[in-house]
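ARCHIVE CARD
Drawer: 12
Card no.: 0347
Subject: one protein chain, sequence and derived structure
Cross-reference: see card 0346
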Amino acid sequence: MSFLGQDDSYRRKKCNLDSQESMQTKQFINTLMKLTVMLCILAIVPACNRKQIKYETTGNIARYDSALDAIIDSTATAEIIAEGFEWTEGPLWVEKEQMLLFSDVPANTIYKWTAENGSEVYLKPSGYTGDEVEKLKEPGSNGLVLDNDGFLVICQHGNRQVIRMLAPLKEPRVAFLLLSEKYDDKRLNSPNDAVYNKAGDLFFTDPPYGLPTQRDDDPEKELPFNGVYQIKQDGEVRLLTDKISKPNGIAFFPDEQRLLIANSDPNAADWYILDLADTVIAPKLFYSATNERDGLEGLPDGLKIDSKGIVYASGPGGVWIFDSTGKVLGKIVLDAAASNVALSADEKTLYITNSGRILRIALK
């Protein structure tokens, strides 16, 4: 009897311990689940807050051809994601950092925009490092592009040169490597926009807009023309053409044999093709808007070409959308001058520098 009683007592104690352990396990699991839920909420709330940002919109779509339906929705409008600048230019989407870089040319500043923080100063001074900034109307950076190693390359109006920033994208600073400042021993006018090919050659335009008067008769202008250039990998600067009066935006078609150049001349508001395969490179008319600009803000300016050869070109009245043959498919109609555009990495978003604003519009 005594042994049975001891066994019975042991079993009761064991049951109590098992019950306590089971309860502690349940409490631990419940606590762990609550912590997991809280962490999920903390992760989700900021994302929800970002999604809830509602931007004002502007513009509308003018559809000229049914081919536009595969590019952009006919009811799309552009979001105003940043504003309050003087004259924005040179937009560049940096996928790795999920940021848009752009120039405010009169302010001599590069800004960055992110969905989390909006716009903030990225680099200042960006285009002129001298001490006579007051004599220049547009001293700052203009076109921005990444080289094949991921470094930021800047067209500098005030310094009249093309440079590479000698700093990581995450840690910008005013430290530059000179890529080009002269042609034929004469100073460049004011490099405006640029594009790389896959081989690593840089192509850029050089109108007079960074000079004090912004005119071809400016006393500080040393070259007798406004050129389109190629900087080869060995540093040689080659003049491609001096036959475009005000060369501005520049981009390659996917074959990288043909360059499209915008001409910001009110008397020749055109886009031209330069075929690099030609023995003698001469501008060929892609499209002329000279007789289509009455009452419209803007001139042919910055542009981009997507992987399918679709052209997004700032021009009179907004952003013109062409196919690769020069056929106008439609326009993003805007009430203020568009100066340039940038595509996201997946080509589903178009960013537009629109006078003192930055716009974003969805593509298909």
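Annotation on reverse: The radius of gyration is 29 Å. Residues 1-6, 44-50 have pLDDT under 50 and may be disordered.
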